[in-house]
Amino acid sequence: MSRLSPNIALNPESLLQKAAAQTG
Question: What is the pTM assigned to this prediction?
Fold first, then answer.
């Protein structure tokens, strides 16, 4: 997940994808 941290910072869309995965 360490490498995901910087990715999310550079790609806010990643957060949306993560949220979508959590919401299922």
Answer: 0.37
